[in-house]
Amino acid sequence: MTTTPPAPFTLPAPVGALLSRLPAYPGSMLLVTAINFALAKQLPQDVKDILRAKRLAIRVRDARVAFDFSWNGQRFVPCKPQAETDLAISANAQDFLLLAQRRQDPDTLFFNRRLVMEGDTELGLVVKNALDALELPVLDPREWTPRAVLERKAPQLLRQLPPLPRFLRGRP
């Protein structure tokens, strides 16, 4: 971890109440698309074999949302919300973001009870160790703005768009 993480932050309860009303399946679809893109091809075969048909959930406590998915042998696929999962990983939104940005260590969050794994402990360790072993890009939210994605994927289209006003560029 290269920087000191910020003080813990919890989304306000009204925000969580609003987010909890959103349908779960579209969020799970977005999550599996992202993890398939970012790490599915990098997973070792033995981890893929262990994950096959396991029911997994990511629960964002303060946002009051959950993303249910499983590994079908070739990719992660969304599932309908399930009461029983093989492994559920829970944390607040900020903690998941800090993990993705590599600004916080999962063990630290776990021992401080900010990251909770429920269900199959052995499966949880397999997932944690597999993620630790992968060379994953650090999530920088600026890299995922519509303009940044277009710049990487469709620069010719980006050239056709008008420039952003200076105050929206985030740079002087």
Automatic annotation (TrEMBL):
Span of domain SCP2: 51-132
Organism superkingdom: Bacteria
Pathway(s): Cofactor biosynthesis; ubiquinone biosynthesis
Keyword Acyltransferase annotated: no
Keyword terms of this UniProt record: Ubiquinone biosynthesis
Known function: Required for O(2)-independent ubiquinone (coenzyme Q) biosynthesis. Likely functions as an accessory factor.
Record-stated family: Belongs to the UbiT family.
Protein name listed in UniProt: Ubiquinone biosynthesis accessory factor UbiT
The gene coding this protein: ubiT
